[in-house]
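Page 37, continued from 36.
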């Protein structure tokens, strides 16, 4: 099988690393990729916002399957154009990607499908906003309706701050605050069938103890020793299957990765958000644990052949820790040299996944806020943590920071503290 993967982050590096392990893979091409991916696949420097350019590349390379990593090309309709050109694609149509692209749309689908989620109002003017804020009270949760690259959601006790954030966007969803730990649970769907992956948890705040601003994710781990034993089955039955059925009933089947961000509240499981693609950095802990050959799995999803599919997992635990640039997330400083990235080769059961790196004059430099992520595998979370931290502590990047408490509480079987 000849695969073209779209994207350039740590998630795509983890996808690439798993795809090349599939015995049926003949060639892996990536657009645009990054220096880490370039070490294991053939990278193509094209503009992946240009759907026609991606279709042309796939045709020229005689690609059997395109796997789309990030949300932007999905919302831009890349999957639709590939399917029109008769190229199998793992990734939802623009219409189905609205599950991530519009919070209001996701709420409507959940309401129609009977999926448990926070009560909410969709507001388009100040009077509606104020009414919604006062209906729920503090803590206030305000979400911009459209794609916002992680900056669209504010959770605050300050009504004035909530109001200001709400008035920044033409349409917002204001919803009840959900307490309890957060879990990320992904399903792989062919539009009719959906297969659940194992749960993971990510750490959204910049600093230890869940302090600092929200980020794209500072680390993750899987499995979750503290989670209810039936969480996968419950999410499948209450969330993933009804959502896939509802999308199908609307004639916009969802083919790809359905990401359910869950809160395990005192009243039961609730969906916080949907995404239409693999989560980052959760993918960097899930895929190193997945034993099922990934290219074949995603090809089955892309071609409507997932019925009866069961996933196989290693019994290892995985922990990933993100190395972030100085000033991330407010104003990341980039262009600094990075050393020590060869160390994962000498410590078994560790991986370095590049995210914001670039090669300049043969030397690796930082080029983004989240620079790379180090995954450690071990017999339990304690061992996985110690491997990930051993490698990351040997990497140097001036001014960089990383959290020291990823999976720390979970390694003693307790859920993480806040996760908010
Ligand atoms: P989202 O982009 O919807 O995932 O929101 C980003 C983060 O905001 C989530 O991971 C949660 O930590 C937090 N959040 C979102 N919605 C709620 C909610 N209803 N109650 C509490 N926290 C929330
Ligand atoms: N881990 C959060 C996300 O991928 O959106």
């Amino acid at each position: 099988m000849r695969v073209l993967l779209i994207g350039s982050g740590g998630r795509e590096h983890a996808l690439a690393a798993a795809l090349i392990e599939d015995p049926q893979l003949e060639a892996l091409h990536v657009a645009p990729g990054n220096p880490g991916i370039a070490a294991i696949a053939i990278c193509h420097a094209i503009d992946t916002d240009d759907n026609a350019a991606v279709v042309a590349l796939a045709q020229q390379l005689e690609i059997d399957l395109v796997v789309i990593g990030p949300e932007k090309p999905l919302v831009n309709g890349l999957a639709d154009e590939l399917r029109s050109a008769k190229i199998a694609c793992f990734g939802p149509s623009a219409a189905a990607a609205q599950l991530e692209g519009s919070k209001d749309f996701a709420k409507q689908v959940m309401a129609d499908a009977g999926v448990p989620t926070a009560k909410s109002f969709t507001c388009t003017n100040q009077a509606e906003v104020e009414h919604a804020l006062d209906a729920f009270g503090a803590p206030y949760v305000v979400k911009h309706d459209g794609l916002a690259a992680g900056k669209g959601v504010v959770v605050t006790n300050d009504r004035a701050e909530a109001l200001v954030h709400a008035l920044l966007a033409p349409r917002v969803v204001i919803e009840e605050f959900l307490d309890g730990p957060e879990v990320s649970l992904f399903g792989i769907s062919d539009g009719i069938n959906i297969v659940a992956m194992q749960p993971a948890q990510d750490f959204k705040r910049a600093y230890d103890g869940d302090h600092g601003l929200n980020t794209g994710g500072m680390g993750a781990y899987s499995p979750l020793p503290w989670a209810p034993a039936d969480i996968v089955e419950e999410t499948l039955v209450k969330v993933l299957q009804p959502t896939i059925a509802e999308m199908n009933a609307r004639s916009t089947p969802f083919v790809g990765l359905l990401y359910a961000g869950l809160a395990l509240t005192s009243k039961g499981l609730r969906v916080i958000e949907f995404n239409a693609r693999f989560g980052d950095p959760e993918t960097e802990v899930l895929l190193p644990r997945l034993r099922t050959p990934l290219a074949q799995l995603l090809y089955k999803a892309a071609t409507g052949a997932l019925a009866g599919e069961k996933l196989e997992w290693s019994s290892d635990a995985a922990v990933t820790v993100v190395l972030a640039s100085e000033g991330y997330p407010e104003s990341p400083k980039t262009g600094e040299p990075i050393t020590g990235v060869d160390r994962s080769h000498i410590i078994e059961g560790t991986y370095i996944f590049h995210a914001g790196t670039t090669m300049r004059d043969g030397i690796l430099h930082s080029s983004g806020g989240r620079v790379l992520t180090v995954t450690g595998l071990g017999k339990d979370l304690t061992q996985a943590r110690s491997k990930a931290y051993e490698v990351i502590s040997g990497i140097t990047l001036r001014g960089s920071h990383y959290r020291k408490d990823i999976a720390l509480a979970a390694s003693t079987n307790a859920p993480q503290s806040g996760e908010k």
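The domain at 2-90 is CATH 3.40.50.20 (Rossmann fold). Flag for discussion at group meeting. The first strand starts at residue 2 and ends at 7.
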